[in-house]
Design goal:
about 700 residues, alpha+beta, Ribosomal Protein S5, domain 2, Arc Repressor Mutant, subunit A, eight-stranded antiparallel β-sheet, six-stranded mixed β-sheet, 15 helices
Length: about 700
Amino acid sequence: MAKEYKSFSMELAGRTLRVEVGHVAAQANGAALMYYGDTCVLSTATASEKPRDGIDFFPLSVEFEEKMYSVGKIPGGFNKREGKASENAVLTARVIDRPMRPLFPKDYRNDVTLNNLVLCVDQTCSPELTAMLGSAIATCISDIPFDGPCAMTQVGMINGEFIINPSNEQKSVSDLALTVASTREKVIMIEAGANEVPEDKMIEAIYAAHDVNQEIIKFIDQIVAECGKEKKDYEHYAIPEELNAAMKELFPPEAMEEAVFADEKQTRDANIRVIKDKLAEAFADKEEWLPLIDDAVYQYQKKTVRKMILKDHKRPDGRAIDQIRPLAAEIDLFARTHGSAMFTRGQTQICTITTLAPLSDAQKVDGLNEFVTSKRYMHHYNFPSYSVGETKPSRGPGRREIGHGALAERALVPVLPSEEEFPYAIRTVSETFESNGSTSQASICASTMSLMAAGVPIKKPVAGISCGLVTGDADDDYLVLTDIQGLEDFFGDMDFKVAGTHDGITAIQMDIKIHGLTRPIVEEAIRRTKQAREYILTEIIEPCISEPRKEVGEFAPKIQQIKIDPSKIGDVVGQKGKVINQIIDETGVKIDITDDGAVSICGVDKVGIQKAIDMITMIVSDFEEGRIYTGKVVSIKEFGAFLEFAPGKEGMVHISKLDKKRVNHVEDVLTLGDVIKVKCMGKDKMGRISFSKKDAE
């Protein structure tokens, strides 16, 4: 007998959103089979029965599983099954995680997994958005403690008009890719990529999405009312009041304030270490307190920093509320890389290296979006442990590194030249040399300078900066901080990153730890980041390098592009690639040809590039009567010699056309390998092209 289940639906941006509860995955704490158009995602929420031992954080895992069967494909490569999560899957999981994590209880220590299995994809209905809504619904109807609901909406913009939940085709031509998550009253997460969208227009788009989210939340409320389970109680985690009191007796608030009020992160860390050591010594006979000291000091430090900032308007390093840390910029750090730059902000230091290559080196993308099959620009971000004075083995990029790299990539894509203007694949790698807050935004600044130093003709420089927030009990009791350092990020309520040019925003990423932001906070954060961005561009980046270099560097590949008749592509390639491989072998270049006849010739040697261009031009051109050509003797017959003018393109000089005097034997005038000039005499009686050596002299 088929299971009985409940189905709910609403119209969302002109398409039907349908949710089935109780149809599948009944053993999960919460499960929602989500349909948006023909897109189908199974979203589940599960939690462990007991908290994990020995941890002082909430262990939340979010997964977005891309299955290639959902778009009718078999995975590429030798292993015909899905492997590790793609970059898109990691980024989608992060977008789901960021708004939902703050809505779980702060002292919840049970493992929770939100899993989203993509079963079917309709290119007009985003599986990512469907999974975002599915995770929220599955968690809301489960018995897992959660202060929801929350909802998410995507916004595009075409010709200045907002598109709610755009299709993949619309996204490919949109000037805006915005995702906004909301609770009932407030915005809780913002992520955006944009083509220099003005600040006022961005705020308008954010709150257009927020309004749609309110309709979705009403829909979720209906589902929870009919299907929601009673929330479980859980083991609450709190520092004993006796421990807090004893700690404050040994170290009163002014002592903690003195410890954290330091310019250098190392000094502050050393001060806190002393406090912990003295507490461990004082509480040696209280064995049950010893494992709690680290968390107790953390909470005490957090309350102290928040009070200092919110009530006293004092920051740990003594800066004004809107003051940026000392800045520095450098370019050309390394002799043979194609471009390099370093950007320093306080104790945050990023070095970005640019590498240029032929378009054939662009990254191929095997994913669910049929409109995105390759990436010509790649930004990678690395965060080694030494950058924060720690030691641990390198295990490759984690989700944080992938997310930071994607954010910087998103910020810079709008200012890159087109392939026609600059036919290169481009890779920038940001190495974190030192970290104390907002390395992702420093990597945007370093990458802008590195690209310009490499001779990439970007349209405008881009800078990024982050704002923080400390809130009190009331909505209007808050303080926005410009350029937050690590401590203000750890103990504050918000990390609001904005990147852009002088003229508009190119990327936003907002993370918060509270239950949402009011509109005045959002507007002030965007205004503050614009002021800071303008300062960084005008006072730091542009004095270091004001515009892209006119040419790529000595050690960078040179690329020239020509257009040929697409019907001649086969002549250039030759049978089994024989012709094109001969050109490559003779000139040392790389050659890429697109279906529309665009030929890119890449090499370090300009002479070799020009030789390859001449050879290709010869192959695709018809011989002109009266024109002088240069050819190599490749075959000698009794009646004349055959010349190769370019790979696969030959012609013949009759023995009678070799010299002005009579020639009895071709060998008397020519030998194999000779390079000679000949004149095209037009077609002979047989319709063949005739050449003359004697008329070229």
